[in-house]
Design brief:
single chain, four-stranded parallel sheet, 8 strands
Length: about 350
């Protein structure tokens, strides 16, 4: 069960409790699930009981007690423990990470796209309408519009990008393109107008320049400097690409040792990594809905930071022989690399196998 599926399971539990007359609340649109905080336990925790306590007119702990029976025994849920003022701590069955990894590896870099298996409904699903993006004659605006168009298309939308001005060198240098140049179209477009870059990013090269322009939120002024080229941990782009390259190196090294990946239980799998991988489809949907590719960039940093400590533990050590556990760990590492590659591609940034 992925975090997105678990969130739906929690909401279904609320709906069942409401239908049974045990809670008198409006079922919320979303239930947040995340790795347990201090004092928590299990694989994930949710504060849904605290969220519903006031409208239900009951203490949070009592709301949690009402919801617990509707979660225990659900397919994929092994146990639910109440902690603190009313947190529901959920332990998943041992196959939960394997199911997530299998889903990611099956979809490949299209994991989270609208046409991928089990993808959530796209905010701009194909309906013969066209999403029109329009931006000023500004390099950052054009790069952001280009990334937004990529994300919208992965969610199933038809997109047309226009700009008030466009320099041909931008296509050669940064891989951006527009469908038309001139004033805004007659039909009301979505205006893409981020804070302009304070300096010319072209000397950074395609990948670093796009990252410098896309990683900050649109209302933040980007930093344009050599820090984006630094091959060190302090550079978020380097961490993301390094984590991807390390995952690919593990696949090559495993082949040299005579084994390949096979999804399976990983008892000590980092919960932060599983949560970040499972959250990828939601992040893509939110980035499309809010026209905010920066959400993807920050999410990729979170995936990389969760994956990097795990990757050195994947391969057999010393005289160990490859086992099912090693194959399952390798599959999880490959899933992380797949999500990183897919996200970088949507941002128009290369994901090299060697770094």
């Amino acid at each position: 069960m992925t975090p997105a599926e678990l969130s739906s399971t929690v909401l279904h539990a609320v709906r069942r409790a409401v239908d049974a007359g045990e809670l008198d609340v409006t079922v919320p649109a979303r239930a947040v699930v995340a790795p347990p905080g201090p004092g928590g336990c299990g694989d994930y925790a949710t504060n849904i009981a605290l969220q519903l306590a006031r409208p239900a007119g009951q203490p949070p702990y009592r709301v949690a007690e009402v919801l617990r029976p509707y979660l225990v025994g659900v397919d994929g849920v092994a146990d639910v423990v109440l902690t603190g003022p009313g947190f529901l701590n959920i332990s998943l069955g041992g196959a939960a990470p394997a199911a997530l990894v299998e889903e990611i590896l099956s979809a490949g870099t299209r994991y989270g796209h609208a046409d991928a298996p089990d993808a959530p409904d796209a905010p701009d699903a194909p309906d013969n309408s066209v999403v029109r993006l329009h931006c000023p004659h500004d390099l950052r605006a054009v790069v952001v519009a280009d990334a937004v168009a990529r994300v919208l298309r992965c969610r199933g939308a038809l997109v047309r990008v226009t700009a008030e001005g466009f320099d041909r060198e931008w296509t050669a240098a940064l891989g951006v393109r527009v469908d038309g140049v001139g004033p805004a179209p007659v039909s009301p477009p979505v205006t893409v107008r981020p804070v302009p870059a304070p300096a010319d990013p072209l000397p950074l090269g395609r990948d670093a320049a796009r990252w410098a322009l896309l990683h900050p939120a649109a209302h933040d002024r980007p930093r344009i400097g050599d820090e984006h080229l630094a091959q060190r941990e302090g550079n978020p782009l380097f961490r993301v690409r390094y984590a991807h390259a390390r995952s690919r190196a593990l696949t090559r090294n495993a082949a040299d040792l005579g084994f390949t990946a096979a999804p399976g239980p990983v008892p000590d799998a980092p919960q932060e990594l599983l949560a970040a991988l499972g959250d990828h489809p939601r992040v893509l949907a939110a980035a499309a809905a809010h026209r905010a590719p920066d959400r993807i960039a920050r999410h990729l940093v979170a995936v990389a930071d969760a994956a990097l400590p795990f990757l050195p533990t994947v391969l057999p050590r010393g005289g160990e022989k490859p086992s099912a556990a090693h194959r399952a760990r390798l599959a999880l590492a490959e899933a992380a690399g797949t999500v990183l590659a897919g996200g970088l591609t949507l941002l128009g940034i290369d994901a090299p196998d060697h770094l």
